[in-house]
Specification:
This is Putative tricarboxylic transport membrane protein. It holds the Pfam family TctC. InterPro entries: BUG, Bug_dom1. It comes from Leucobacter luti. With about 350 residues, the chain is an alpha/beta fold. It contains 11 helices and 11 strands. The longest helix is centred in the first third of the chain and has 31 residues, at about 20-50.
């Protein structure tokens, strides 16, 4: 729901039916609840972390609700750091809303607090572009890219499309007649990238948004859509059970342990990865940034973290130091172009 601009001419009020009032109350209540969580969490972080050393007290902010990808990264990192004595008191704070930009905005107000880390990644960068948020990654101190997670292109097991080329050929013939879905905004970026590689105007594509991977799979299985892009970890069970057919892995090169040909191997040069990163607040010193980077690298070197990487089918792609900023700039340009191609 958009909030009218202050001072803009407004239409005369219309009487609301009871059902409309109840719906409006739920929407307003949900918005207030999200904002209240963000404000409360921000306050607790500000007071708890004041003057604390990173090895005695560390807060990991997941810019989404519990159970999602960002939350998983934060909690695996928390458990790893606790198990190896890397930080004595590690807490995870969930701060959902607006694709992660609410958490990013709050993070920008923690200037100089070197014992707070924000989990982010492709989705957060995309959200700052999609929503035109005031807060961007320029308002924090990006420290490290941790790993990449790859999308997979899937169709129902009884689909007539046996290969990615079969699917693309039908899509090229009538772009609007091959409806797609995905579990999030990143998946739509992958579909857009594939459309461009296939010479299809993304604006002509039928893309039906799903709220998460489970809903996307349901849309495939009930015939609402014919194809989907989604994270490999979210689809592996359905692929292994034979309910879905995997046509392509969206990765730069084949991944050991994943027996799915890449889109690039099949002639479609799409390699957009769902990477994850960690950032500290702005205003920390160079020594503090170095100490935090060392803590991150020590965490990634533990057996516990290695186990998590294997368990979630992540591909380690560690970027730190002066290599982080050029990487983010390149990804910003790439994702901005995809949104422009979608007409957004």
């Amino acid at each position: 729901m958009e909030t009218p601009l202050s001072g803009a001419p407004q239409p005369p009020p219309q009487p609301e039916r009871p059902a409309q009032k109840r719906t409006l109350s739920r929407v307003i209540g949900g918005t207030i609840a999200v904002l209240a969580i963000g404000v409360a969490s921000f306050g607790s972080i500000s007071s708890a972390n004041a003057g604390q050393d990173i090895h005695s007290s560390l807060t990991l902010i997941a810019p989404a609700a519990a159970g999602g990808g960002w939350d998983t990264v934060a909690r695996e990192m928390q458990q790893t750091q606790r198990a190896n004595g890397l930080a004595a008191n590690v807490q995870v704070v969930n701060m959902p809303g607006a694709g992660g930009t609410i958490a990013l905005g709050n993070m920008s107000r923690l200037e100089g607090r070197a014992n707070t880390l924000l989990v982010g990644g492709t989705g957060l960068l995309a959200a700052t572009i999609q929503y035109g948020s005031d807060a961007t990654l320029d308002d924090v101190t990006p420290l490290a890219v941790l790993f990449e997670e790859y999308d997979v292109i899937v169709v129902p097991a009884d689909s007539p499309y046996e290969t990615l080329s079969d699917l693309v050929a039908a899509w090229q013939e009538n772009p609007g007649a091959v409806p797609w879905t995905g579990g999030g905004s990143f998946d739509q970026l992958v579909v857009t990238d594939l459309a461009l590689a296939a010479g299809i105007n993304p604006v002509d594509t039928t893309y039906i948004s799903s709220d998460g991977g489970g809903e996307a799979v349901a849309a495939l299985l009930n015939g609402t859509v014919q194809a989907a892009a989604g994270g490999y970890p979210d689809n592996i069970d359905q692929i292994q059970s034979g309910r879905l057919r995997a046509l392509a892995l969206v990765a730069e090169e084949p991944v050991p342990g994943i027996d799915i040909p890449t889109a690039r191997e099949q002639g479609f040069d799409i390699t957009l990865a769902n990477w994850r990163m960690l950032a500290a607040p702005a205003g920390i010193t160079g020594d503090e940034a170095g100490e935090l980077t060392e803590l991150i690298e020590d965490t990634l070197a533990t057996p516990e973290w290695t186990s998590a990487v294997e368990r979630y089918y992540w591909t380690e792609q560690v970027i730190t130091g002066t290599d982080v900023a050029p990487f983010l700039a390149q990804e910003h340009t790439r994702i901005t172009r995809l949104y422009e191609e979608m007409g957004q």
